[in-house]
Structures are given as structure tokens and as C-alpha cells.
Amino acid sequence: MAQIYRESAEVLGREQIAEGIFSLWLQTEQIAAECTPGQFVSVYCADASRLLPRPISVCEADPEKGKLRLVFRVAGKGTEEFSRLKNGERVQLVGPLGNGFPLEKLAGRKVLLAGGGIGIPPMLQLAKALSRGEKQAAELTAAAGFRDSLFLTEDFAPYCRLLLATEDGSAGTRGTVLDAMREGGAAPDVICACGPAPMLRALKQYTAEKGIACWLSLEEKMACGVGACLSCVCRSAEVDGHSRVKNKRVCTEGPVFAAEEVEL
Amino acid sequence: MSQNMSVSIAGVVLKNPVMVASGTFGSGIEYSRFLDLNRLGAVVTKGVAITPWEGNATPRICETPSGMLNAIGLQNPGVETFVERDLSFLEQFDTKVIVNVCGHSLEEYLDCVRRLADEKRADLLEINISCPNVREGGIAFGTDPKGVEQITKEIKKIAVQPVIMKLSPNVTDIAQIAEAAEAGGADALSMINTLTGMKIDVRRRTFALANRTGGLSGPAIHPIAVRMVWQCAQRVKIPIIGMGGIASAEDALEMLMAGASAVSVGTASFHDQTTAVRVIDGISAYLEENGIGDVRELTGCVK
């Protein structure tokens, strides 16, 4: 079993980067050093009346300094609590959790990273990993789909070309990440995606038709976050080796799955 | 001063009265990285049936104030995989193992109990007649006193291990159900399972859970559980394992004083994986501070 750590992390910086979207830099002991792109952490509320952890994917990690960046949308009272954290305060984390994107299968390929909404942050860590070093992609493009206001777009600039889509057409292509890919003439041979279910379904269908590889990062409500409670399952194409039914645990077998492994 | 923390449930001696509740802890494999399973009085494994069950659609859970609703639907890999993988994993630990058993029909319960008969690692059986999230089986067996007595009798006829019946709080008079289980020959009772609840997502204007209803657990239900344990302790002689919202040693002590011989930590493990160990240490410290030599003196001390 890969190591999972329970840590009290110090808040190094908090910033609102768009309407309802917050960025936190945290000082960790082990998590930042050991997490890989696509993994997530469980973040615990200080208010124990909110007893379940919030799973949040890693946006950036500085392994040398142990710094971890989380970017999240305020969706309820728990994430609202995190959005009010101040520098020097501490927050309880468990991680790194789950399986990230398979870097060894992406190295040397023409990779497109597709992020929709709050699915965009984990694509930044993946872009960094594939832009240099032994896991470098042959060609790297990111496509980010927003409802309206943009965030993190400048962060991608050093690592890859970025195609933009907005629902209202206020920036980039009007429409979805698939529309932005078509307009931008992207011709990847593998797609990595994280975002809302309709976007993932569309990409699963698109890549199946084109016969190209596709990796999807899924989201589901979690309780334990470590594979015990079976809250966060997704439907799988085949009988899973652990569950012995057509279910896989998003927290443990995922959150990243090969598109053909899962039914959306 | 010497201190006794051990308790006996149907002749099985637990090193302390704290276990982890079925369905919140898997079989301990995942949690063993956070706490030492050797510290626990017992591990109560997630409900297992004679064949694999798929469980319900997602979303299966949602958070509520100081609690959560779940409708997992007893997803489990079936007893064969459970024996091979989970029970063998538990071989290495010095703790008792209580296997929670579920079924869609009386025959399925009996088949699973029969399959476990030769498994030495299963020290006790806990029969789940109280799951609110499956249409057949589960709670259907647990809400009628005659039905409870009958299923308990049938299971007792064939069970090799002592039998704990796990009771539902979703009844008019839980003490009547407790008496029925005792009359059927149950060796002990586990109580309470979750309370049926519902949450509506006002933004989407639909149910928060795919199953529409779910079982409420967590600190929010603790006072109800204490009351029910107290009521049943007045009416039955068999030991009671108390559970429902225990998150601290104080919560566990309340349950013992109300009449429980042992306690289970459930949902609180989701918030802090080490809760059960904190509860054990807290009970021990309480005994020390109050000059009590034996944890068993606390059981039912509040009349």
C-alpha cells in the first residue's frame, strides 16, 4: 500500500482567484513530496459538526519545499470554512489519495489536457509534469472550459498552449472544451480530463469514435476517502477485482480511470 | 492501581469494550495504516452476504448537521471473497472479529451463517436485520417482534458462533424487539442501526440521495441511542453493544452507564480515523481518575 499521511498543514497563503474560487498554499510534511498529478487530499473541517472530509484535487505541489496548492470552489459550508482560513492557521489533511494520471503512458505522446470548471486545477500539476523531464509529452495542449470568469489561465502559460472555452463566449471559443479543441485544431493522441459529468461523457464518446486513449478523473461524494465505506463508487464496465461487482471505488481505484473502464 | 478493561460478550472475552461499527470500517484493511488494530476490543466487519451485492446508485451519502445519511445498499463482495481476503487479513491481529451478516431472505441469512461455521477467525456473528436501505431483507426482518424471534431462532439452530442481533431504531417500541430477540435465543444485542432520514437538495429540487431515503448516523443520533440502550437494558438480560454517534470517551461512557456492556465507534471514524483508540484511552483515564478498578462496574450504573 502506498503511504497515506495524516497531517496538520499550515496555511501559507490564501487568495480568491475568481468569483467563488479560492487558492490555498499549504505547508505539508510528506504529502506535497509524494503526491502525483491527479491525486487528491481529504480536507477536514475544524467545525466537527461537519464531519465528512472534502476531497480536493492537488493543483500544484512543490516537492522540495513541501508546499501544496489546492484550488477549490465554495460549494457549501465546508469549503466556505476553508475559504476563510488565514495565514498561519492549520488545517487537517489526509493524503495523497487515489491513483493519478499514468505519466508513463503519457510520456512522448501528443497529450491534450481537458479541464472543465473546478476540474481545471488538477490539470495544472499534470501540465507541469508533462512539460519537462523524462515524462515530457511530445506535444502538450490544455483546453479549459469556464462558465464565465476565468481562473488559472496565466498559470498554464509556461507549460503549454491553452485553448479557452466559455459558455457565454466572453473569452475564447463559445461552447465547450470540445468546441475549443476543434476550433484550435488540436489533434491529440491521448486526452486527460477532469470536469463535470456531461463533459466527461462527451470526451469518452469523442475519444472512442476517434480511437484515441482517454483518461478521466471522476468525482463522487466520499465519507472515508480511503476505500472502506463504499460511498464513492462508479459503475465499471467489468466486474472489479476488489468489489466483485461492476463497481469501482473512486477514492481508491480512481479518481483517474481509463475511459473504457467506467460507465458514465 | 490495577485496572480491568476487558469485557465478555457471550463468553468471548474482549480486551476492552470498544469496537468499530459495521459498515464504517470495512474489514480494517484501509484503516490499519492509521491505527493499530491490536488496540481494539473487536473489529465488526462490513455486512456480508452469501453472494456479491452491487448496492445502490450514487449519490449514496450526504452530510447533515453533526451527522450523515447513507444508502450504500449493503454492497459487498460475497462471503467467499470475504473469507479469503478479509478474514485472512485479520488473522495477524490480536483482536476479536465480529462478522456482520446480511441477506435478502431467511435462506440467504442461513446460507451465509452456515458458510461461516468453520471459520475460526469469526469469533461472533452480528445479524443485520435493520438495514434501512435495501428493499428486501435488512429492516424487513427487524421491525416485527414475531419475525425477529423467528429469524433469531432459525439462525441460532445452525450458528456455531454466538449470535448478536442488530436492532433497528425505526420501530415503535425497540424494547419489545429486544425482548423478541432474547426470546429467540440471541446471545447479545447491537443497537442502534441508523435512523431513516431524508435530505432534499433545494438547488436541484430533488433528493440528495439516489435512494431518496438513507440512514442517519453520527453525533446527531447519540441521545436517541443512549435512550434506547437504557430502555432495552431494563427489559433484557443479554449484553448490549451500544452504538450511535459515539465520537468521544464521554459518549462511550454514557452508553455504558445506560446499560451497554461494550460500545462501537462508527461514523466518527470518518472524521478522525483514530477515534476508537482515543475512546479506549479516554475510558481508561476515566477509570483511573475515578478510582474505578473494573470497566464492568459502569455498565448500567445509571438506573
How does this structure look, described?
The complex is a heterodimer of chains A (264) and B (303). By secondary structure, chain A is α/β, with parallel strands linked by helices. Chain A is built from 7 helices and 16 strands. Chain A has 2 domains: 5-97, Translation factors (Elongation Factor Tu (Ef-tu), domain 3), CATH 2.40.30; 103-217, Nucleotide-binding domain of ferredoxin-NADP reductase (FNR) module (Rossmann fold). In chain A, 19% of the residues lie in helices and 36% in strands. Chain B has a single domain (7-297), classed as Aldolase class I (TIM Barrel). Chain B contains 8 helices and 16 strands. An 8-stranded parallel barrel of chain B has the order 3-4-7-8-9-10-15-16, surrounded by 7 helices. Chain B is globular. Chain B starts with 6 loop residues before the first strand and ends in a 14-residue tail after the last helix. The mean pLDDT of chain B is 96. The A-B interface holds A 1, 3-4, 6, 44, 48-53, 78, 94, 220-224, 226-234, 242-247, 252 and B 23-26, 29-31, 33-34, 46, 52-55, 58-63, 65-68, 70, 72, 75, 77-78, 81, 218-219, 247, 267-273.
In angstroms, what is the radius of gyration of chain A?
18 Å
Q: Low-confidence parts of chain A lasting 5 or more residues at pLDDT below 50?
A: none
- CATH fold label of the largest domain in chain A: Rossmann fold
Largest sheet of chain B: 8 strands, parallel, barrel
